[in-house]
Amino acid sequence: EETVTMTVTYAEYQPHVGDQDALKLTVAGAVQETGQVLAKELRVRLHTPELTLTLLGPAVVGQEVPVQVVFQNPLPEPLTGASLRMEGAGIACPKPVSL
Question: Can the keyword Transmembrane be found in this entry's annotation (predicted)?
Answer without folding.
Answer: no
